[in-house]
TrEMBL record:
<dbReference type="Pfam" id="PF02613">
    <property type="entry name" value="Nitrate_red_del"/>
</dbReference>
<dbReference type="InterPro" id="IPR003765">
    <property type="entry name" value="NO3_reductase_chaperone_NarJ"/>
</dbReference>
<protein>
    <submittedName>
        <fullName>Nitrate reductase molybdenum cofactor assembly chaperone</fullName>
    </submittedName>
</protein>
<dbReference type="InterPro" id="IPR036411">
    <property type="entry name" value="TorD-like_sf"/>
</dbReference>
<keyword id="KW-0534">Nitrate assimilation</keyword>
<dbReference type="InterPro" id="IPR020945">
    <property type="entry name" value="DMSO/NO3_reduct_chaperone"/>
</dbReference>
Length: 164
C-alpha cells in the first residue's frame, strides 16, 4: 500500500532490540511516525537498561510473543522450513538477498522489506498471526502493542469470508 513506507520502516526499528542506534534514532522515529507515539513516547522516558530488559522479557522469553511470522502458522515443525524458503524467494523476486542474522520471517525484516518494495504479501498472508501477536501484546500490557496496532491498521481489509 502506498504511503506507509515510513511507518513500516519505523515500526521495524521499534521492534528490534533497543540498542544505542535505536536511542539515537528515537527523535526521528517520533517525528516520522506519529502513529507509533504510544511506543516512542514510552521509549523516550524509559532508561536504556529498563527498555532492553523489557524487550527481552516480552520477545525473548516467550514464544507467545514471537516476532517470527511462520512460527504462528507452522510452529516448530518441518513445514516451517518451506515457509522460510517462501520468504527468501519473495525477497529474491524483488532483487534482495536476505543476509540478516535473524530468520527471513522476523517481523522487523519483513517490515523493512515492505517499506522498500511496497509488497504487502507476507503481511497480508500473516494477518491472523499479526492479530494474535497484537492481542497478546495488548493483554500483556506492553507499549509494543501500539506498534502492532499501527502495522495492522495498514493492512487492506480482509477478503469477505476470510477468518480475521
Amino acid at each position: 500500500m502506498p504511503g506507509f513506507e515510513v511507518l513500516h520502516q519505523a515500526a521495524a526499528l521499534c521492534l528490534t532490540y533497543p540498542d544505542d542506534d535505536f536511542r539515537a534514532r528515537l527523535p526521528l522515529l517520533r517525528e516520522a511516525a506519529p502513529q507509533l507515539r504510544g511506543f516512542t513516547d514510552h521509549a523516550a522516558v524509559t532508561g536504556q537498561g529498563e527498555l532492553q530488559a523489557h524487550y527481552v522479557e516480552v520477545f525473548d522469553f516467550r514464544n507467545r510473543h514471537s516476532l517470527y511470522l511462520s512460527w504462528w502458522t507452522d510452529g516448530d515443525t518441518r513445514n516451517r522450513g518451506m515457509s522460510l524458503v517462501r520468504f527468501k524467494e519473495l525477497y529474491r523476486a524483488h532483487g534482495l538477498e536476505f543476509t540478516g542474522e535473524e530468520l527471513p520471517d522476523f517481523l522487523p525484516a519483513v517490515l523493512e522489506f515492505v517499506s522498500r518494495t511496497g509488497d504487502m504479501t507476507m503481511l497480508t498472508e500473516h494477518r491472523d498471526a499479526l492479530g494474535q501477536l497484537r492481542s497478546r501484546l495488548t493483554a500483556f500490557g506492553t507499549p509494543y502493542a501500539c506498534v502492532l496496532d499501527a502495522v495492522c491498521a495498514t493492512l487492506p481489509p480482509a477478503p469477505a469470508g476470510e477468518r480475521r
